[in-house]
Amino acid sequence: MKYDIVVVGGGPAGLAAAIEAKKQGVNSILVIERDQELGGILQQCIHNGFGLHVFKEELTGPEYAQRFIAELKAMGIDYKLDTMVLEVSKNKKVVAMNSTDGLMEINAQAVILAMGCRERTRGAIRIPGSRPAGVMTAGMAQRFVNMEGYMTGKRVVILGSGDIGLIMARRLTLEGATVLAVTELMPYSGGLNRNIVQCLDDYDIPLYLSHTVVDIEGKDRVTSVTIAQVDDKYKPIEKTKKKFECDTLLLSVGLIPENELSKSAGVQLDSITGGPIVNESMETSVEGIFACGNVVHVHDLVDWVTEESRKAGRGAAHYINQKTIGKQGSISMKGCHGVRYVVPQFIRKENDQEFVELMMRVDNVYHQVQLVAKMDGKIIQKINKRHVAPGEMENFKLDMRTIDLSNVKEISMELVTREV
Question: For the whole prediction, is pTM greater than 0.90?
């Protein structure tokens, strides 16, 4: 079996990448999805707020996904559902399996990795206490309630203030549950500010910052959860313990890019994002293998996933059509002084581009700052920011027309304090 491009993952990233590659003139494309339907995680995200940037209107997750699913089908792009990819090799051979075709070996000219991310579990954060039923990730609870029709509990505590946890606080409240508390280890929320307002404040759900769960009690089912405030070294303060009688604990403690297949292909990973190191075309360290969406770095908005994945689709199409030149990357992009990371991590100077879209996250909450691009210690571009926070991704359009790239090896992104 041969295809020009194989896309691993049929979620928002994979769909956008496949459609864009088709628009760029590549006709032989296969999308492989392990679930029973296209759309990925969006199918269980029945709340609104999607599409404000891409479509200029507010959609639910399934509505947003359906627009891409319909376009994919209308364009005649091949896809396989209920199919598990077992391996992606450096020479772009994809090994997959399903109950209809059995074991398949698919040879591709280019591969786009769009496997998304997974949730951290209780084992990853080592919460003490017993191990009763009723402890689950927020994403699992979301699937139970929105797709399977099961209520996860009546009295709920949520650990972590990521967006999924915040949204589930509201969702469970609307279904009749009592959400007793949302606790967050850090002194700031890990989610979007609009979700703090719309999901917690509007429903009088308390948010305990600088708190964590220190004990879980229960034999067959959770009966109580104890939280405590933490000090500046994140150690619980004994005298601040607070006990909640509850039957459910939801974990919203971070997402991890799903990169087992990336590792099997020999793709170099970024130690901070946990995803592949990519250049401006979203090409990884392995030539002809591209990556996009949450498998590269965890996004806050699906609209940004779509925009990034379109770059991967264009990049893969241009690679096949030999429209790009240069190696994986020649200019290194670094984050420092308040910026945790920058994607892409490399820019190829040989490819003539007017602008390069940069995405990044900061390491703390800052007010009245400038986000600046520096080259050889000199500011080459800057934008003013009234407020930046780790839970909200920052976008920066780097104007390559104003930069002399002849001797540039590194461009840094950082925060500097500005006068108000």
Answer: yes
